[in-house]
Amino acid sequence: MKPEKPLVSLKQKIAIAFYLVVLMTISIGVVAIILSQGLKFKVDHLVTEDMLKVTTALNLAKDAHKLQTITAKLDITPREDLKQYENQRRNNLDALEIKWQELLDDSRQLASLSLSLAFKQQLEQHIDRQLHYVQQMSLIKAITERALSSHIQAYNLQTNLINIQNSFAKDITAKLRNIDTLTSLALDKRQIRQAKSLIKQHEELARFLHYGEQLFAQLAQLSPNENIPKINQLQRTSMRLYLIMDASFTKEDELYPLAQNWLSLIQENIIGEDNIFLLTRDAKKSHNIASAHLSYQASAAQDISEFAQRLVSHVELSIEKSRQKLKTDSTAFVVLIIFAGIIYAFFVWLTNWHFISKGIIKPVIATSHAMNAIANEKLDTQLPRTDNLELHQMVTSLETLKSYAAQVKAVSEIDGLTGVYNRRYFDQQLTTLISRCNEQQLPLSLILFDIDKFKQYNDKYGHLAGDQCLKRVLRTVKSQLHRPADMIARYGGDEFVILLPNTLEQDALTIAEKIRIKVFDLAIPHADSDYDNRITISLGVASMLCTGINTSDALIQYADKALYQAKADGRNRSSS
């Protein structure tokens, strides 16, 4: 007969249960600490490493874009205001050198972070190129100084030639009038031989004046904007005319000293070591060399910008993977706490679960959702609030990322010159509004307009003045759009488009006419304008009511026809 098992008192069972509970509590606590530390480490890594990569790469892309802008400004040929041009070019060269150094510093900072081998190798190549261009700046400055010096000397010689031309014309013309007077007197006294000599002198001097005027006309065409073959052609033609003038009189001729006096003045400027042709060619060649170097630098900046964008995309993908892993770990953590809550119920809920749920899990998930929303370009997403230091750091960095994402999105949607939306964003919005109009039976109107004779304006006043004109016109147009839903975008060149949701055609025509009048009232001078020598615009209006026009292409086509009709009717008007 087997012995019976010893009885265990309730106190012992409770003690055993208590020890088991304590052991389980400690185990769960240890696991919870380990998991929370793991989460903390991943969050810290996400905040410090990945966010720093994105921030630095975005800075790199922004600096590269600014560098391209500076090189574009430096590619402008000399203008008449040499002092202003000289100062602007030197300032832009200094800015370019500073920007290359900043780009190099950003690249080196990025290289200090952990990157994949492929990105590391590409970044090292970009750093080598940047270092080369930083060292090259002194050469570009020297070439630029040479171009400016040659251009200033050529300009001074050309000014001197203009003065010589004026004096030459006055002196020779006066001499011809004097010969005419002497000829008349000789004929009155019947001194035929003397009259014939004076007539011959008159003919030779008139021919000398004719070739001189041709020579000065050739010299007036010299400009640093001309190409080298054109400068060489002008030099050959000018030398031929000079030699013809030099052969016009012999030493025995009475007018020989007068001709030699003027020829010596002209010779000083067109023949010799520092003649106007040599200086103009030197200025052009130096400018071309500097422009070639700047073109290479602009290309390198474009490569760096593209590299930075690829790196940002790569890091964003890495952040997304980290987010998924963080979410998985958070879920496992939640499961563990739920299991402990089943055992401990009120105790766990009152202590551990209540703390962890509100203190860590919910903020982590909310931050994870916010990261996902920002990655999907939902930039109006509200970021969660938390009193946890690590999560607060992540939210702060996420806020920075959100700001940079907004900047990148704005760059992709906004036209850099005018500040209005670009063609790409307009096409997206128009497609959306067309679809909504067809679904909800709402009207949609479109105004297509451009500046009358804008090409002549650019040719007459220059592209910088044209850019300022566009900005002033668009500020005025935007001031007439009072609804948040109204949108203006640059359609191409000096052509712009306005979208007016929930607007009938007649109302759109009224708006277009107000815009036309406001632009006319700006009184921007335009010598080629048909209306009071001021800038005017022509506008074409099209509207859809879900019958007839029902596609974006059709709506734009109708607006374009209306704009064409406004042009045909004499410009400075609205048409539908």
Quick summary:
By secondary structure, the protein is mainly alpha-helical.
Instruction: Kindly report the spatial arrangement of strands forming the biggest sheet.
Output: 2-3-1-4-5
- As a percent range, the share of strand residues is 5-15%
Low-confidence stretches: 350-355
Helix content: over 70%
Find the structural class using helix and strand composition.
mainly alpha
**How far apart are the termini?**
113 Å
State the helix count: 14
What's the overall geometry? elongated
The overall strand count is 5
Question: What topology emerges from the helices and strands here?
Answer:
Blueprint: H1 10-74, H2 82-111, H3 117-188, H4 192-220, H5 228-246, H6 256-270, H7 276-344, H8 346-375, H9 389-413, H10 423-440, E1 444-451, H11 454-461, H12 463-479, E2 487-492, E3 495-501, H13 505-521, E4 537-544, H14 552-568, E5 574-575
Parallel strand pairs: 4-5
Antiparallel strand pairs: 1-3, 1-4, 2-3
